[in-house]
Amino acid sequence: MIEPSTVRFASAGVYAVSAVVLLALARRKPPELRRYCYPFVAVVALAGVGIGTWGAGIGAFSVGSGTLEAGQLLSDYVAYPFLCGFAAFVSGAGRRYVWGIVALTVAMRLGYDFAEVFEGALATAGTLGILVGYATLLGLFFGPIAGAAARQPPARELFYKKTRNLALFAFGVLIAWAMLQIAGLFDQFSAAVTLEYLDLLLRVGFAGFVFANVETLAAEADSEIGEEDGDAGRGTTATVSVSSAD
């Protein structure tokens, strides 16, 4: 049977190639859009480094009754909060909501670690943290954050809905995987293959989706500038008219 380390090395290679491709695509975007693209390149590149070190057995340390992998932690604790936070950002919601989503996602990921390496009450608390956190995410994304998106132009609101749905679906599948993993229903090879597949879809697939739709954010910025220029122009015309009347 193929070793889990081999699966992770293969996954790290896919991340490396994907990061190079995404960087090339980002550099072809207009300068004002690159600031939205480069963080996704960094997330994918960092995942390649993290999964590569995990495959090499570097950075493993014991906690409780289990083992945590530094490479996996580095990759997940950067990628998951960033992707959910970006979905909230697209809605146009305030920073309070964006950072709240980021903190909630970190807490959910921490809950998985607790459920994985501890037993008894701590493990139960970790599992409940994952489930309650996801329910809270649903409430926020379909509640006040969706309300903020509804006040945006239709194109940006649609971008938000697609981003939100993609993030929630991907995390729902990951949570289902986590519950099966915690229950011990995967062997090492199956766990490695399914996790790497899901994480690749989440990171690289999410990045590709954003790259294909990032012009929506530029169109919104142009619209705001145009409205400001129009208001300024109307104000100038009114001033001239008053001056002429005098």
From TrEMBL:
Subcellular location: Membrane
Biased composition (Polar residues): 236-246
Alphabetical list of SMART domains matching this protein: Bac_rhodopsin (SM01021)
Chain ranges passing through the membrane: 6-26, 38-61, 73-90, 121-145, 166-186
One GO CC term, this protein: membrane
Keyword NAD belongs to the record: no
Primary subcellular site in the record, as a coarse category: membrane
InterPro entries, A to Z: Arc/bac/fun_rhodopsins
Homology family: Belongs to the archaeal/bacterial/fungal opsin family.
Superkingdom assignment: Archaea
Annotated keywords: Membrane, Transmembrane, Transmembrane helix
Chain intervals for the UniProt region annotation (Disordered): 224-246
Protein name per its UniProtKB record: Rhodopsin
Topology relative to the membrane: Multi-pass membrane protein
